[in-house]
Design brief:
Layout (H helix, E strand, L loop, with lengths): L2 E10 L9 E7 L17 E3 L1 H8 L8 E5 L7 H13 L4 E5 L4 H7 L5 E5 L3 H4 L5 H11 L3 E8 L5 H14 L5 E5 L5 H18 L3 E3 L3 H5 L3
Parallel strand pairs: 2-4, 4-5, 5-6, 6-7, 7-8, 8-9
Antiparallel strand pairs: 1-2, 1-3
Helix pairs in contact: 1-2, 2-3, 3-5, 5-6, 6-7
Bound molecules: iron/sulfur cluster (SF4).
Length: 223
Protein backbone atom coordinates (compact mmCIF):
# COMPACT_ATOMS: atom_id res chain seq x y z
CA UNK A 1 0.00 0.00 0.00
CA UNK A 2 1.46 3.35 -1.02
CA UNK A 3 0.81 6.80 0.38
CA UNK A 4 1.05 10.01 -1.62
CA UNK A 5 3.19 12.43 0.38
CA UNK A 6 3.97 15.97 -0.76
CA UNK A 7 6.88 16.54 1.64
CA UNK A 8 8.62 15.42 4.84
CA UNK A 9 10.60 17.99 6.83
CA UNK A 10 11.25 19.22 10.35
CA UNK A 11 10.37 22.64 11.69
CA UNK A 12 8.49 24.26 14.55
CA UNK A 13 4.72 24.09 14.83
CA UNK A 14 3.46 27.41 13.52
CA UNK A 15 -0.02 27.55 15.00
CA UNK A 16 -2.42 26.30 17.61
CA UNK A 17 -1.88 25.07 21.16
CA UNK A 18 1.54 23.57 20.42
CA UNK A 19 2.93 26.69 18.77
CA UNK A 20 6.72 26.64 18.82
CA UNK A 21 7.11 22.89 19.50
CA UNK A 22 9.61 21.10 17.31
CA UNK A 23 7.95 18.55 15.04
CA UNK A 24 8.57 16.35 12.04
CA UNK A 25 5.95 17.18 9.41
CA UNK A 26 4.49 14.66 6.97
CA UNK A 27 2.40 16.56 4.45
CA UNK A 28 -0.18 14.38 2.74
CA UNK A 29 -1.08 15.17 -0.85
CA UNK A 30 -4.69 15.97 -1.78
CA UNK A 31 -7.64 17.56 -0.04
CA UNK A 32 -11.41 17.08 -0.16
CA UNK A 33 -12.09 20.83 0.22
CA UNK A 34 -11.20 24.02 -1.64
CA UNK A 35 -11.26 26.75 0.98
CA UNK A 36 -11.17 30.27 -0.39
CA UNK A 37 -8.22 31.23 1.87
CA UNK A 38 -6.16 28.07 1.26
CA UNK A 39 -2.42 28.70 1.12
CA UNK A 40 -1.42 25.03 0.73
CA UNK A 41 -1.56 24.41 -3.01
CA UNK A 42 0.23 21.10 -3.56
CA UNK A 43 1.27 20.13 -7.06
CA UNK A 44 3.44 17.05 -6.66
CA UNK A 45 3.98 14.05 -4.40
CA UNK A 46 6.27 11.09 -3.72
CA UNK A 47 4.95 7.59 -3.14
CA UNK A 48 5.95 5.74 0.03
CA UNK A 49 5.25 2.36 1.55
CA UNK A 50 4.49 2.84 5.29
CA UNK A 51 7.79 1.20 6.30
CA UNK A 52 9.74 3.42 3.89
CA UNK A 53 8.23 6.54 5.42
CA UNK A 54 8.86 5.25 8.95
CA UNK A 55 12.52 4.59 8.08
CA UNK A 56 12.83 8.16 6.81
CA UNK A 57 11.28 9.55 10.02
CA UNK A 58 13.78 7.57 12.10
CA UNK A 59 16.61 9.49 10.39
CA UNK A 60 15.57 12.69 12.21
CA UNK A 61 17.86 12.74 15.23
CA UNK A 62 16.80 15.78 17.27
CA UNK A 63 14.33 15.66 20.15
CA UNK A 64 10.86 16.25 18.71
CA UNK A 65 7.55 16.88 20.41
CA UNK A 66 5.64 14.79 17.85
CA UNK A 67 5.09 13.90 14.22
CA UNK A 68 2.54 16.20 12.60
CA UNK A 69 0.47 14.42 9.95
CA UNK A 70 -0.82 17.32 7.91
CA UNK A 71 -1.94 18.16 4.42
CA UNK A 72 -3.98 18.65 2.40
CA UNK A 73 -6.14 16.24 4.33
CA UNK A 74 -4.38 13.15 5.76
CA UNK A 75 -7.64 11.28 6.37
CA UNK A 76 -8.23 11.06 2.60
CA UNK A 77 -5.56 8.32 2.71
CA UNK A 78 -6.83 6.68 5.89
CA UNK A 79 -5.53 3.15 5.17
CA UNK A 80 -2.01 4.38 4.62
CA UNK A 81 -2.36 6.80 7.52
CA UNK A 82 -3.43 4.02 9.89
CA UNK A 83 -0.38 1.92 8.95
CA UNK A 84 2.13 4.72 9.44
CA UNK A 85 0.45 5.77 12.72
CA UNK A 86 0.84 2.22 14.02
CA UNK A 87 4.55 2.26 13.17
CA UNK A 88 5.26 5.70 14.64
CA UNK A 89 3.24 4.89 17.76
CA UNK A 90 5.25 1.70 18.33
CA UNK A 91 8.42 3.68 17.63
CA UNK A 92 7.63 6.05 20.53
CA UNK A 93 6.72 9.03 18.40
CA UNK A 94 3.72 11.06 19.51
CA UNK A 95 1.12 11.25 16.72
CA UNK A 96 -0.39 14.67 16.02
CA UNK A 97 -3.11 14.91 13.36
CA UNK A 98 -3.91 18.20 11.61
CA UNK A 99 -7.24 17.87 9.84
CA UNK A 100 -10.08 19.84 8.32
CA UNK A 101 -12.46 17.94 10.59
CA UNK A 102 -14.90 16.66 7.99
CA UNK A 103 -14.07 12.96 7.39
CA UNK A 104 -15.52 11.46 10.57
CA UNK A 105 -15.87 7.87 9.27
CA UNK A 106 -12.21 7.86 8.37
CA UNK A 107 -11.25 9.38 11.73
CA UNK A 108 -13.05 6.56 13.52
CA UNK A 109 -10.73 4.06 11.82
CA UNK A 110 -7.53 5.74 13.02
CA UNK A 111 -8.46 7.45 16.30
CA UNK A 112 -6.94 4.66 18.42
CA UNK A 113 -3.50 5.54 17.07
CA UNK A 114 -3.64 9.32 17.49
CA UNK A 115 -2.48 11.31 20.53
CA UNK A 116 -3.53 14.86 19.60
CA UNK A 117 -6.15 16.08 17.12
CA UNK A 118 -5.85 19.66 15.81
CA UNK A 119 -9.16 20.17 14.03
CA UNK A 120 -10.21 23.04 11.77
CA UNK A 121 -13.69 24.46 12.14
CA UNK A 122 -14.69 25.43 8.61
CA UNK A 123 -17.13 28.32 8.80
CA UNK A 124 -19.03 28.59 5.50
CA UNK A 125 -18.73 32.38 5.28
CA UNK A 126 -14.93 32.03 5.69
CA UNK A 127 -14.34 29.11 3.33
CA UNK A 128 -16.87 30.07 0.64
CA UNK A 129 -18.10 26.45 0.77
CA UNK A 130 -21.33 24.86 2.00
CA UNK A 131 -21.67 24.35 5.73
CA UNK A 132 -20.24 21.24 7.40
CA UNK A 133 -21.94 21.44 10.79
CA UNK A 134 -23.05 17.82 10.90
CA UNK A 135 -19.72 16.47 9.68
CA UNK A 136 -17.92 18.62 12.26
CA UNK A 137 -20.25 17.52 15.07
CA UNK A 138 -19.71 13.81 14.36
CA UNK A 139 -15.99 14.40 13.92
CA UNK A 140 -15.62 16.24 17.23
CA UNK A 141 -17.52 13.54 19.11
CA UNK A 142 -15.00 10.94 17.91
CA UNK A 143 -11.99 13.24 18.35
CA UNK A 144 -13.01 13.82 21.99
CA UNK A 145 -11.71 10.32 22.78
CA UNK A 146 -8.26 11.95 22.53
CA UNK A 147 -6.77 15.34 23.28
CA UNK A 148 -8.42 17.71 20.81
CA UNK A 149 -8.39 21.43 20.11
CA UNK A 150 -10.13 23.40 17.39
CA UNK A 151 -8.81 26.15 15.10
CA UNK A 152 -10.75 28.56 12.94
CA UNK A 153 -9.68 31.26 10.52
CA UNK A 154 -11.24 34.70 10.92
CA UNK A 155 -11.55 36.60 7.65
CA UNK A 156 -13.09 39.98 6.80
CA UNK A 157 -16.05 38.06 5.36
CA UNK A 158 -16.60 35.70 8.35
CA UNK A 159 -20.17 36.12 9.58
CA UNK A 160 -20.98 36.35 13.29
CA UNK A 161 -23.93 34.00 12.91
CA UNK A 162 -21.63 31.27 11.57
CA UNK A 163 -19.16 31.85 14.36
CA UNK A 164 -21.84 31.57 17.04
CA UNK A 165 -23.13 28.36 15.47
CA UNK A 166 -19.59 26.99 15.53
CA UNK A 167 -19.18 27.90 19.20
CA UNK A 168 -22.39 26.11 20.12
CA UNK A 169 -21.29 23.08 18.20
CA UNK A 170 -17.99 22.94 20.12
CA UNK A 171 -19.79 23.38 23.43
CA UNK A 172 -22.18 20.51 22.65
CA UNK A 173 -19.79 18.03 21.02
CA UNK A 174 -16.49 18.66 22.85
CA UNK A 175 -17.05 20.87 25.86
CA UNK A 176 -13.41 20.81 26.99
CA UNK A 177 -11.94 21.75 23.61
CA UNK A 178 -10.13 25.08 23.36
CA UNK A 179 -10.78 27.19 20.28
CA UNK A 180 -7.81 28.88 18.61
CA UNK A 181 -8.67 31.99 16.60
CA UNK A 182 -6.38 32.73 13.65
CA UNK A 183 -6.54 35.87 11.52
CA UNK A 184 -6.40 35.41 7.76
CA UNK A 185 -2.85 36.52 7.04
CA UNK A 186 -3.72 37.82 3.56
CA UNK A 187 -6.19 40.46 4.73
CA UNK A 188 -6.32 43.87 6.47
CA UNK A 189 -4.86 43.23 9.93
CA UNK A 190 -6.26 46.37 11.60
CA UNK A 191 -9.82 45.54 10.58
CA UNK A 192 -9.40 41.91 11.60
CA UNK A 193 -7.99 42.81 15.03
CA UNK A 194 -11.19 44.78 15.78
CA UNK A 195 -13.28 41.86 14.61
CA UNK A 196 -11.22 39.52 16.77
CA UNK A 197 -12.20 41.43 19.91
CA UNK A 198 -15.89 41.03 19.03
CA UNK A 199 -15.40 37.32 18.43
CA UNK A 200 -13.54 36.88 21.74
CA UNK A 201 -16.53 38.48 23.48
CA UNK A 202 -18.80 35.98 21.74
CA UNK A 203 -16.62 33.12 23.04
CA UNK A 204 -16.99 34.42 26.60
CA UNK A 205 -20.74 34.77 26.14
CA UNK A 206 -21.07 31.21 24.76
CA UNK A 207 -18.69 29.82 27.40
CA UNK A 208 -16.07 28.47 25.00
CA UNK A 209 -12.42 28.92 26.02
CA UNK A 210 -10.55 30.63 23.21
CA UNK A 211 -7.23 32.25 22.49
CA UNK A 212 -5.94 34.18 19.51
CA UNK A 213 -2.71 32.80 18.10
CA UNK A 214 -0.81 34.16 15.10
CA UNK A 215 0.32 31.74 12.38
CA UNK A 216 3.89 32.27 13.51
CA UNK A 217 5.69 30.52 10.63
CA UNK A 218 4.32 33.26 8.34
CA UNK A 219 5.44 36.01 10.73
CA UNK A 220 9.01 34.74 11.11
CA UNK A 221 9.26 33.35 7.60
CA UNK A 222 9.90 29.65 8.23
CA UNK A 223 8.25 26.64 6.61
S1 LIG B 1 -8.88 22.08 4.17
FE1 LIG B 1 -6.87 23.05 4.40
S2 LIG B 1 -5.64 22.20 2.71
FE2 LIG B 1 -7.80 21.76 2.25
S3 LIG B 1 -8.45 23.47 0.94
FE3 LIG B 1 -8.99 24.01 3.05
S4 LIG B 1 -7.23 25.19 3.83
FE4 LIG B 1 -6.55 24.12 1.96
Amino acid sequence: MKGRIAEVFDSIQGEGLYLGEKQIFVRFYGCNLECRYCDTKLSSFMEYEPEELFNELKLYRDKYHSVSFTGGEPLLQKDFLREILKLTGKGNFKNYLETNGTLHKELKEVIDYIDIVAMDLKLPSSTGLSDMWEEHRLFLEIASQREVFVKTVICTYTKEEDFIRGLRLIREAAQEAILILQLNSNEDRAYLHDKLETFKDLCRRERVTCCAVEQIHKVIGVK
